[in-house]
Automatic annotation (TrEMBL):
SUPFAM superfamilies to which the protein is assigned, alphabetical: CheY-like
Lineage, highest ranks first: Bacteria, Bacillati, Actinomycetota, Actinomycetes, Kitasatosporales
Coiled-coil zones: 162-189
Gene Ontology biological process terms from the UniProt entry: phosphorelay signal transduction system
Top-level taxonomic group: Bacteria
Pfam families (UniProt xref): Response_reg (PF00072)
Keywords: Coiled coil, Phosphoprotein
Protein name stated in the entry: Response regulator
């Protein structure tokens, strides 16, 4: 059963949160509300999110200040932020949004189809990264446990485990390739394209590690590439 991604919606106006939920409900992911910057930071302490939709103008801690706090935290600094604003003060205001760490800056009223498409890209990338971490964790477990322990417990032989990991990785590689082609076709945001390329590099490193462990390669145990 695939776990759903969480999307954080931050806006001080309940009607805006309701509208965002209506737009994004078709993605069938978990939508989490926050009515202030402080409430958003509290939610980010305990949960992992695929993307954050952050209103710029809020009383107290505004969107720019909230984003600055998010980017300062090691746990949350890599979460994509899409700024939503009801006003447009020109290029300088937009630049401030990108400088605060946003991957996109959308003025209200926005096209629901465009917003949903942008959010879906980051959800896809998040899910692929989760799958990649799972594959890496399985490989590390096999390397640390050793073949003897697996056989003693009645588990699969190392060759069988490697074959299963290779098959699972191949499925993720196929999905990542399809996603990259989709981003190219749709002329997606540069940040999304860069994130997809980073994911492909991780997949390539993990594939090389698996290939080195295959019997008959003549290579010793390979180190598992870092997934940070």
């Amino acid at each position: 059963m695939v776990q759903k991604a969480k999307i954080l919606l931050v806006d001080d106006r309940p009607e805006n949160l309701l509208a965002l939920e209506a737009i994004l409900s078709a993605l069938d992911q978990t939508l989490v509300r926050a009515s202030s910057g402080e409430e958003a930071l509290k939610a980010l302490l305990t949960d992992d999110f695929a993307v954050i939709l952050l209103d710029v103008q809020m009383p107290g801690m505004d969107g720019f200040e909230t984003a600055a706090h998010i980017k300062r935290r090691e746990r949350t600094r890599d979460i994509p932020i899409i700024f939503l604003t009801a006003i447009n003060h020109g290029p300088h205001h937009t630049f401030r949004g990108y400088a605060a760490g946003a991957v996109d800056y959308i003025s209200k009223p926005f096209d629901p189809w465009v917003l949903r498409a942008k959010v879906s890209v980051f959800v896809e990338l998040y899910m692929k990264n989760c799958q990649l971490r799972e594959q890496a964790a399985l490989l590390r477990l096999q390397l640390e446990g050793g073949g003897g322990k697996a056989a003693a417990g009645g588990a699969k032989e190392p060759a069988g485990l490697l074959a299963e990991l290779s098959a699972r990785l191949a499925a993720v590689e196929e999905q990542a390739e399809a996603l990259s082609k989709q981003l190219d076709d749709e002329s997606a945001d540069a940040a999304a394209v860069a994130t997809a390329a980073h994911l492909e590099r991780k997949l390539t490193g993990l594939r090389r590690a698996l290939d080195a462990l295959e019997p008959g390669t003549g290579s010793g145990p390979a180190s598992v590439p870092s997934q940070n």
